[in-house]
User: What shape does this take?
Amino acid sequence: KREIGVWRYLDYLPVKDPKKIVTLHEGGTPLYKCDNLAKELGLKELYVKNEGANPTGSFKDRGMTMGVTRANELGVNIVGCASTGNTSASLAAYSARSNKKCIVLLPSGNVALGKLAQAMFYGAKVIQINGNFDDALLMVRKLAEEGKLYLLNSVNPFRLEGQKTIGFEICDQLNWEVPDRVILPVGNAGNISAIWKGFKEFKETGITDKLPKMTGIQAEGAKPIVEAFKKGQKTIVPEKHPETIATAIRIGNPVNYPKALDAIYSSGGLAESVTDEEIVEAQKLLARKEGIFVEPASAASIAGLIKLIEMDAIDRDEKIVCITTGHGLKDPDAAIRASERPIEIECDMDVLHSIINEE
Ligand SMILES: Cc1ncc(COP(=O)(O)O)c(/C=C/C(=O)C(=O)O)c1O
Assistant: This one.
């Protein structure tokens, strides 16, 4: 039996030459049973799948191990992407590992510190665009059409092939059971599409016998998919000026919206939005109840769960998996902004005793 991780599922992945696989041992992330949080929310069975535990700290590593392996098979030397941060961090790492040049386009002023540090430090050519993610994606797609680079945004189907292993792994870790509902944040909408594909493939090949309700959560200021869902539509109206502190999902024109809406409709799932305040509260609750530190966009899945319970939109007896998509260290500024300031004293034991005795 192969060790747990993306390549445990090699037989379900479109690899022509396994010798060309580029890996940082991604996947195999913890599926935590969260009984404290479940009790707090009045739920029977709640799990958190922490994708922040991947090599570069987000679920993107699953897509990149597959996508950069494909680039290897094609003999490509230059790869690129537009990114809100995590895609660029991951592509920079996997391209370094396979001696490829990497070009990343980032929306200047809206990329969390940890992600920018990663893209720079792994040696990518980092270009900041005076525009948003959607503008950057249009530009990098033009470079790909001109043959200047191999595009590894989630328009590239090999990215989704790698990310579908999140669905496989959840079943694997639940002893081949399928949760009633999977809740995750949605930005460009590749991940919700990929994970749905994974669950469908396991069912179609007889490994499992049911499918979860796919539930996508967006930020109040960047929710084109939620708006389409609430009108029962299959097309979206792009948000021209997406705004949220959850910069990872500050996306107004999600390229994968058709697949994402199909996943939500066909699974009998839901789409809901949450405010920045609800995201920060959920981010704190998860850290202080379960010891799991995630970046703001990731906490949208927990904030969405809380909101859906309050709306009586889900059954408290459901077996629920919330996917937290990126590590809290990615956005240290957001974490410090949301916390009480540290106490600062001189090296004086009396002062220290007076503080401790207050506790
Ligand atoms: C932490 C985190 N949580 C959720 C999402 C949304 O996933 P998709 O709905 O598949 O886009 C992202 C996406 C990030 C980028 O799109 C990028 O890095 O360019 C993320 O980094």
